[in-house]
Specification:
By secondary structure, this protein is of the alpha/beta class. The chain has a single domain, classed as TIM Barrel. It has eleven helices and 13 strands. The chain is globular.
C-alpha cells in the first residue's frame, strides 16, 4: 500500500504538501477546506512585525499633543490587539482541523515582538515559521552584518518557545549553505526555500513605480530545485521547497532533490484548492509505476550528494548549450 506520510519539524503529515502563508490560510474556514482537499499542513497568514509597528505609530500620531505617558499604553494596546486576533486564528484552526498548524511571523529584526512567540506556542501552534527578510542595501554594512540579524532572531525566539522553528529565506546570500548550517546550529529545525517578495516594476507611461506579477510561474522552480538539492545534500537541515511549484512534476522533483515538504500557494490561487488532491493522486500513480511504497524510498535520490556528478547542480554558464547551436 502506498504511503505519502511525511515527517517535518518533528510533526507527522499525511503527505508532504503544505499550503504556504497567504490569504488562503487567513481563516479557519479556509483551512478546513484545504484540509478536505488533502493539504498535509498549513502555514497561517503571517503576523507582520512591520504592520504591528506601523499601526502603533499611526495610532500614536493621532494622540499627538496628549499626555506623553499615553505612548506606552497605546503601543502596548495596538500590539496586543493584533496579537489577540492572531492567537484566536490559531485556536480556531486547531479546534476545527486535524492537520498541523504552523504559525508565521514576518519579521526584520529581533525586537520586542519575539515575546509574541511564547503566546503563539500557548495558543496551540505546532511550529513557527519565521519569515525573515532584510534587503541588503546598506552602503556601510557587510553581508555578515545582515546574516547576524537572522541568527539573532532565531536565538531570541528559541529562548521562549519549545516548538520547532523553520526559517523562510531568500537566495540573497553570498554563501547560502553556510547560513543554513549556522541557522541549524542556532536551533532552527528547517529552512523554507524560498521567499517570494513584492517585485517592483516601472510604468513607462505614468512614470510610476508599480507592482510586478505577484504569482510565481513554473520556471521559478529551478532556482528552488538547485538549492534544495545542494542544501539537503550538504547540510543536516530539513528543507521545505517553495516558489514555482505548480504541478505534480514539480512536487516530485523537489522530493527527489531532498525536500522534506513542498509548499504551494500561487497554483492554488490560480487553479483552485482541488489542485492539491489532483497532485496527490498523480504522485500516488507515479509511485505505483516506479514501485515506490513510501516517499522515504525516493526522497533525496537525486540530491547533490547522491548523484555521480554534483557539478550538474553548480553550473552557472550556458557555454555547452550555446556552443552546440548554429
Amino acid at each position: 500500500m502506498i504511503s505519502l506520510e511525511t515527517q517535518y519539524l518533528g510533526l507527522t503529515l499525511s503527505n508532504p504538501i503544505i499550503v504556504s502563508s497567504s490569504g488562503l490560510t487567513n481563516s479557519a474556514e479556509k483551512v478546513v477546506k484545504l484540509e478536505k482537499e488533502g493539504a498535509g499542513a498549513v502555514v497561517l497568514k503571517s503576523l507582520f512585525e512591520e504592520q504591528i509597528m506601523a499601526e502603533a505609530s499611526q495610532t500614536l500620531s493621532n494622540t499627538e499633543g496628549q499626555y506623553p505617558e499615553a505612548i506606552d499604553y497605546v503601543q502596548t494596546y495596538v500590539r496586543s490587539q493584533s496579537l489577540s486576533q492572531y492567537l484566536e486564528l490559531i485556536r480556531d484552526c486547531k479546534a476545527k482541523t486535524n492537520i498541523p498548524i504552523i504559525a508565521s511571523i514576518n519579521c526584520f529584526s529581533a525586537g520586542e515582538w519575539t515575546s509574541f512567540a511564547k503566546n503563539i506556542e500557548e495558543a496551540g501552534a505546532d511550529a513557527i515559521e519565521l519569515n525573515v527578510f532584510t534587503l541588503n542595501t546598506g552602503l556601510h554594512k557587510s553581508s555578515e552584518d545582515y546574516e547576524q540579524t537572522y541568527y539573532q532572531i532565531v536565538r531570541e525566539v528559541k529562548k521562549v518557545v519549545s516548538i520547532p522553528i523553520a526559517v523562510k529565506l531568500s537566495f540573497y546570500f553570498s554563501n547560502l549553505i553556510h547560513v543554513i548550517d549556522r541557522l541549524k546550529a542556532e536551533g532552527a529545525s528547517s529552512v523554507v526555500l524560498f521567499n517570494r517578495f513584492y517585485q517592483p516594476d516601472i510604468d513607462i507611461n505614468t512614470l510610476k513605480v508599480t507592482a510586478a506579477e505577484v504569482f510565481s510561474v513554473p520556471s521559478d522552480q529551478f532556482q528552488t530545485l538547485r538549492w534544495t538539492s545542494i542544501a539537503s545534500g550538504l547540510t543536516k537541515m530539513e528543507v521545505s521547497s517553495s516558489t514555482g511549484v505548480h504541478d505534480y512534476d514539480a512536487v516530485l522533483k523537489m522530493l527527489l532533490a531532498g525536500a522534506q515538504t513542498v509548499q504551494m500557494c500561487s497554483a492554488i490561487y490560480q487553479q483552485g484548492r482541488e489542485v492539491i488532491s489532483q497532485i496527490l493522486t498523480c504522485i500516488e500513480e507515479w509511485m505505483e509505476q516506479k514501485d515506490f511504497a513510501s516517499i522515504e524510498e525516493f526522497r533525496g535520490l537525486m540530491n547533490y550528494r547522491a548523484i555521480n556528478d554534483p557539478s550538474l547542480y553548480e553550473r552557472n554558464q550556458f557555454m555547452k548549450y550555446y556552443s552546440s547551436r548554429e
